[in-house]
């Protein structure tokens, strides 16, 4: 049984301070998981996790990960600005972008971030707009299909990212000639993989390619970046990946490929987002309406603007009706938000306990790619983000948007002064 990291009593206390909906994060879970990751890769002295900021772009979350010794992986100017504001600098920042604007490269170079080039043509572009640094990384796309044990995980050949193998050789030679001293190699071949074999299989490809590239070009390979992609068990029947088995699998590949090639000083980097934060966030909502037509519907006070994954990918997110964890799941519901879009459904035909209006409905595993993918369609406002701290207290780490925020980019006098306070008490 999947259990939320908060109890009904805690939710009642927290919602007396912060109105629903909001994303809630579990500092204890985040820190414990961070320490496990570090331990699993402790065999590699240079190991560094660069948390993918896009998964949970909140400075307080980044600060917690900084405390744990992690860096950040940024992909845009504003993510770089957030990283700088939190105090990350130099080799604590990886910049893995694509279709990169000039000002983003300039900002990355100012911060002396490690740039991970997405494309061969970016070599010349970067040189023109910001100059070539001494350390640089290139993103590899091996093309074709990526399979583990004959099971196709994804099709890099259809993906927009990275250099081809030939472009890597040529690119490394050009970069070496322009003064690069240390090289990294990066690839992201499959997303949300709970199979423990993903990182080791990816590591083998990258390690082998790195050995060949070093022979072909004579460059110094300083690091391999395994990027993101380790998944989490969104469904109750799924098993969580075993980070220690994953770390050990990568270590074996390292022993097999790098050690005999004399490349035993190569650092391993990761850019995990979902694995670091996904399970340690949830969306706390309340049942606002019920509807009985051809199907049974429960409408929540949150919508796809607060969590897009179900609408966008048909992604499964587990749902707990707080206080009814042990009740029989004998009601079949569609759980919806209020967007004028029929795909605004957090769950379809989900068996749940009977839901009463006002019940707290917690949507699990929203800690990564949850709030971050929010938007303002239908004039819906982004929610608050709240941190459940180690001592059980809470802290608002992002306030909810107000209509004034929504109207802030418009120049229409009077709009922001409209009376918008919601009537205080709704009795369920
Ligand atoms: C999205 C992304 C990540 C993080 O992916 P997860 O699936 O959240 O681990 C890491 N690196 C890059 C370049 C990405 O685009």
* DSSP summary, beta strand count: 19
Please, how many helices? 12
Instruction: Report, as a whole number of angstroms, the end-to-end distance.
Output: 29 Å
Rg calculated over all Cα atoms: 23 Å
Task: Look at the structure and name the CATH superfamily of the largest domain.
Answer: Alanine racemase
Q: Please, what is the oligomeric state?
A: single chain
The largest sheet, given as strand count, sense and whether it forms a barrel, is:
9 strands, mixed
Report the mean per-residue pLDDT as an integer: 96
CATH class of the largest domain: Alpha Beta
How much strand content do the residues show? 15-25%
CATH architecture of the largest domain: Alpha-Beta Barrel
Tell the overall outline: globular
Ligand roster: pyridoxal-5'-phosphate
Given as residue ranges, the uncertain stretches (5+ residues, pLDDT < 50) are: none
Key descriptive features of the protein:
single chain, 428 residues, alpha/beta, TIM Barrel, Lyase, Ornithine Decarboxylase, Chain A, domain 1, 2 domains, nine-stranded mixed beta sheet, eight-stranded parallel beta barrel, 19 strands, binds pyridoxal-5'-phosphate
């Amino acid at each position: 049984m999947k259990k939320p990291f908060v109890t009904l009593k805690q939710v009642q206390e927290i919602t007396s301070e912060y109105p629903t909906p909001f994303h809630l994060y579990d500092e204890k879970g985040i820190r414990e998981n961070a320490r496990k990751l570090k331990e699993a890769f402790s065999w590699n002295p240079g190991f560094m996790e660069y948390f993918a900021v896009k998964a949970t772009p909140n400075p307080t979350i980044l600060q917690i990960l900084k405390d744990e010794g992690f860096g950040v992986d940024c992909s845009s100017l504003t993510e770089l600005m957030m990283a700088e504001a939190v105090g990350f600098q130099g080799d604590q920042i990886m910049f893995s972008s694509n279709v990169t604007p000039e000002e983003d490269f300039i900002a990355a170079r100012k911060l002396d971030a490690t740039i991970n080039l997405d494309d061969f043509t970016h070599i010349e572009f970067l040189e023109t707009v910001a100059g070539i640094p001494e350390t640089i990384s290139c993103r590899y796309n091996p093309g074709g299909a990526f399979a583990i044990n004959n099971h196709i995980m994804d099709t890099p050949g259809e993906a927009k990212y990275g250099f081809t193998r030939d472009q890597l050789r040529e690119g490394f030679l050009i970069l070496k000639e322009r003064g690069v001293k240390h090289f990294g190699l990066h690839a992201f071949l499959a997303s949300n993989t709970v199979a423990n074999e993903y990182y080791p299989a990816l590591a083998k490809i990258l390690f082998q390619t790195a050995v060949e590239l070093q022979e072909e070009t004579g460059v110094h390979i300083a690091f391999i970046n395994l990027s993101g992609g380790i998944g989490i068990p969104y469904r109750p029947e799924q098993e969580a990946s075993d980070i220690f088995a994953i770390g050990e699998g990568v270590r074996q590949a390292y022993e097999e490929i790098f050690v005999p090639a004399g490349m035993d000083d190569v650092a391993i980097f990761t850019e995990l987002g979902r694995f670091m934060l996904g399970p340690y966030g949830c969306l706390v909502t309340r049942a606002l309406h019920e509807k009985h037509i051809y199907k049974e519907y429960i409408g929540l006070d949150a919508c796809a603007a607060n969590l897009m994954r179900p609408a966008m990918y048909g992604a499964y997110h587990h749902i707990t009706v707080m206080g009814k964890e042990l009740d029989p799941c004998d009601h079949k519901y569609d759980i919806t938000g209020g967007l004028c879009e029929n795909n605004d459904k957090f769950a379809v035909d989900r068996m749940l306990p009977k839901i009463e209006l006002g019940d707290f409905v917690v949507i699990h595993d929203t800690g990564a790619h949850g709030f971050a993918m929010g938007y303002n369609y239908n004039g819906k406002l982004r929610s608050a983000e709240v941190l459940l701290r180690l001592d059980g207290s809470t802290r608002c780490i992002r306030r909810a948007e107000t209509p004034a925020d929504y109207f802030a980019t418009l120049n229409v006098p009077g709009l922001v002064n409209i009376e918008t306070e919601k009537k205080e008490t709704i009795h369920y």
